[in-house]
Design a protein that fits this description.
Blueprint (H helix, E strand, L loop, with lengths): L2 E10 L2 E10 L10 H4 L18 E5 L8 E2 L5 H5 L9 E5 L11 H11 L3 E6 L15 H18 L9 E6 L1 H9 L13 E5 L22 E6 L14 E5 L13 H10 L1 H10 L5 E2 L5 H5 L11 E2 L10 E5 L16 H11 L1
Parallel strand pairs: 5-6, 5-7, 7-8, 8-9, 9-10, 10-13
Antiparallel strand pairs: 1-2, 3-4, 3-6, 11-12
Helix pairs in contact: 3-7, 4-5
């Protein structure tokens, strides 16, 4: 796959940040050459800008339809009736990042992991063409537009006789998709739709970080439970914390096995490593056991001294009562989960049994 990268430098509270964007090279089109070009490219999305939009599609996957997903049409009540959607199963709405799509990892690997475990309704939001170069101008508004259309899907699901409540939905967003997940709540009405059950943010990218403005960012008010996994924090990922529970994996900003010959490859590797960690958390029998620590430095030095009952599972099977900042170590290669330390092994096994 042919990719190139944009770096955007900016200042926030006196500190300089650098953000990167992966974009897929499209043949025969002039690529933007500067940051100002980046924001001045013409729109690539056909008007009208209304939801539903044919470039934001919702593909339903179930165990029965793993190879032949069903396209959900939010304007047609029969679409859900005629699909394999089953309200008895957990429903996941997966929102990819830049250059993503339903046919690419992590969407594909995540589906495989869930279906290995059991029955799920997995809805992949495919909006790949919205965030493809040279459409990057749309970085400013495409996430909001995409969020609006996902909110329409949620309206459809919550008002359909065979649908589910918003509380029963779990949104999983990677990179910019994590922000889109947070923005969805801006378009939901607490009375008509209720509140989303859970949003998992997989290394939300810093590009859209709006500082203190929670309505433009993923934050704890966006769902009953918001858990965030950080792997490239401070560079490509935002530092946070932003959720009810924030997990800083291997310290949160640099991942083992990611050292590379170029700085950017290393940074991109840190950022993307979050998805294999989360995917493994769906199927793991060992578990990623995370714990609080007074500071990042003490974690890095191995000076944390958590109580036995402070250990929590990170990832898919997290306890929704978890609150605050947690740290966790992984192996450099798969399987990444290190399991529970010996002194909590018995308790950990009981929890794993209950949660998984
Ligand atoms: Ca928000």
């Amino acid at each position: 796959m042919n990719y190139y990268t944009w770096l955007v430098f900016w200042n926030y509270k006196g500190k300089t940040f650098v953000s990167g964007v992966y974009a897929q090279r499209s043949k025969g089109r002039k690529k933007p050459e500067s940051v100002s070009d980046l924001f001045n490219t013409t729109s690539c999305i056909p008007k009208p800008y209304r939801c539903p939009h044919r470039q934001i599609q919702f593909f339903l996957y179930t165990r029965r339809t793993q190879e032949n997903p069903e396209l959900l049409d939010t304007t047609d009540v029969d679409s859900l009736y005629n699909s394999q959607f089953n309200r008895a199963y957990p429903t996941k709405i997966v929102i990819h990042g830049f250059g993503g799509g339903r046919m690419y990892s992590p969407s594909t690997d995540m589906r495989d992991a869930y279906f290995y475990r059991g029955n799920y309704n997995i809805i992949i939001v495919d909006y790949g063409t919205l965030v493809k170069e040279p459409c990057l101008k749309q970085m400013e508004w495409a996430p909001r537009f995409c969020a609006k259309c996902i909110a329409q899907l949620i309206h459809y699901l919550t008002h359909h006789p065979r649908g589910v409540r918003a509380d029963d939905l779990h949104l999983i967003g990677y990179s910019v998709g994590a922000h889109i997940g947070g923005l969805v709540s801006n378009y939901l009405d607490p009375v008509r739709h209720g509140k989303l059950g859970r949003i998992t943010g997989l290394d939300p990218t810093i590009v859209f970080y709006m500082g203190q403005n929670a309505s433009r960012d993923l934050d704890a008010s966006d769902a009953h439970f918001v858990d965030i996994l950080h792997t490239g924090a401070g560079i490509l990922g935002q530092w946070g914390p932003n959720g009810h529970a924030d997990f800083y994996i291997n310290g949160g900003s640099s991942q083992p096995g990611c050292a590379s010959d170029t700085v950017f490859k290393t940074l991109a590797c840190d950022h993307t490593k979050v998805t294999p960690y989360f995917i493994e958390s769906i199927v793991t029998r060992k578990g990623f056991w995370a714990y609080p620590c007074p500071t990042l430095v003490s974690f890095m030095l191995g000076w944390c001294n958590p109580e036995d009952n402070q250990y929590v599972l990170m990832g898919e099977h997290v306890n929704r009562e978890s609150r605050g900042i947690y740290y966790v170590k992984t192996n450099p290669d798969p399987p990444y989960a290190q399991g529970a330390p010996a002194h909590i092994k018995r308790r950990a096994l009981q929890i794993l049994k209950r949660m998984t």
